[in-house]
Recover the amino acids of this structure.
């Protein structure tokens, strides 16, 4: 469906056109009309489906017309920045202002931004509660609430924080919740806080994003992984994201590849926020960059032109495999995922994921 067929105003359509977006993704087709009507929405979907624009477009349109306020709660600093940037790019032709608040950044700077009365606030639970406790952030006029990556927030221990944030919001509001999975705690939150006539849709069985990814595996001795990675990087002049299981492995791999003349970027939870932002921005701008990361970037970071994802270490949870490889083949692009299997158990897990998602995983020659 073309965006012209949706009830979107011209200022937003022009911004989308400049971003190169002409046709709505499936999640956008479903969410935008319902959100514009004011429905509460629960969306179960994978990453890489255009979810941010799905809730950003109706929020921007409604706020530009009514000058209301919206709160978007996300699990990580990286996702807060990404969502803020996406909203700002869509709202460029409107008066709607968006800010991101999160830990690891000077709170005085964020307080100054809040005093300018932005209409959309994107934040992580801990920093939002800090600002509420300081009476800098007052939410009683908020008319829209979005919980993005809700299952990730609960996995990170933010369940009580999210419930507390909701308690500061007015009862009459529009709520949208997006999550890759629906554990019992999220279903309880939905039943307690959303309207009875909420709309629930499930795109989790839609394999289109995975089907666009050409998947490969390499059986490799753990001690030979570095050589296997060098061969992959040497044979493909593309933008590549490499996943490791631990921060120590990321640092080790960064040092070793750099010594061998391969320029790489690295990001994990122990890097300062400034360093992480710098690395991500450099990776986004590069044409054939290499970023080594832990799972801190497996969800929520949208770099639309990643060609390859390499699982240097096999993910500790099978769900993370899909989140990792979902960093490529975004917005209709093709992509490649390569997994290093150090033993038959990891290979068996990969085969089961392949069967469950109706895909074929080839051995890399």
């Amino acid at each position: 469906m073309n965006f012209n067929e949706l009830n979107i105003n011209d200022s937003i359509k022009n911004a989308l056109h400049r971003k190169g977006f002409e046709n709505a993704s499936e999640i956008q087709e479903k969410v935008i009309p319902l959100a514009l009507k004011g429905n509460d929405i629960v969306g179960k979907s994978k990453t890489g489906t255009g979810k941010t624009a799905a809730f950003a477009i109706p929020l921007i349109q409604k706020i530009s017309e009514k000058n209301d306020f919206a709160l978007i709660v996300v699990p990580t600093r990286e996702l807060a920045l990404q969502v803020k940037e996406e909203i700002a790019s869509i709202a460029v032709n409107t008066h709607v202002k968006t800010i991101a608040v999160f830990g690891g950044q000077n709170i005085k700077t964020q307080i100054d931004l809040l005093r300018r009365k932005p209409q959309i606030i994107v934040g992580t639970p801990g920093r939002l509660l800090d600002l509420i406790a300081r009476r800098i952030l007052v939410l009683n006029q908020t008319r829209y609430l979005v919980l993005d990556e809700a299952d990730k927030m609960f996995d990170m221990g933010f369940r009580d924080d999210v419930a507390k944030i909701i308690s500061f919001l007015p009862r009459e509001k529009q709520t949208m919740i997006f999550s890759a999975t629906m554990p019992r705690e999220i279903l309880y939150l939905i039943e307690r806080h959303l309207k009875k006539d909420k709309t629930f849709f499930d795109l989790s069985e839609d394999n289109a994003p995975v089907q666009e990814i050409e998947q490969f595996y390499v059986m490799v001795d753990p001690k030979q992984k570095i050589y296997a990675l060098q061969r992959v990087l040497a044979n493909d002049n593309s933008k590549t994201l490499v996943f490791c299981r631990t921060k120590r492995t990321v640092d080790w791999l960064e040092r070793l590849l750099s010594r061998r003349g391969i320029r790489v970027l690295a990001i994990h939870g122990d890097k300062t926020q400034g360093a992480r932002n710098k690395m991500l921005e450099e990776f986004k701008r590069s044409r054939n960059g290499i970023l080594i990361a832990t799972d801190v970037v497996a969800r929520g970071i949208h770099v639309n032109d990643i060609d390859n994802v390499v699982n240097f270490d096999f993910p500790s949870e099978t769900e993370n495999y899909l989140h990792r490889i979902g960093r490529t083949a975004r917005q209709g692009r093709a992509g490649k995922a390569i997994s290093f299997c150090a033993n038959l158990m990891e290979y068996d897990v990969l085969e089961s994921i392949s069967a469950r998602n109706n895909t074929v995983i080839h051995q890399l020659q």
The mean pLDDT is 89.
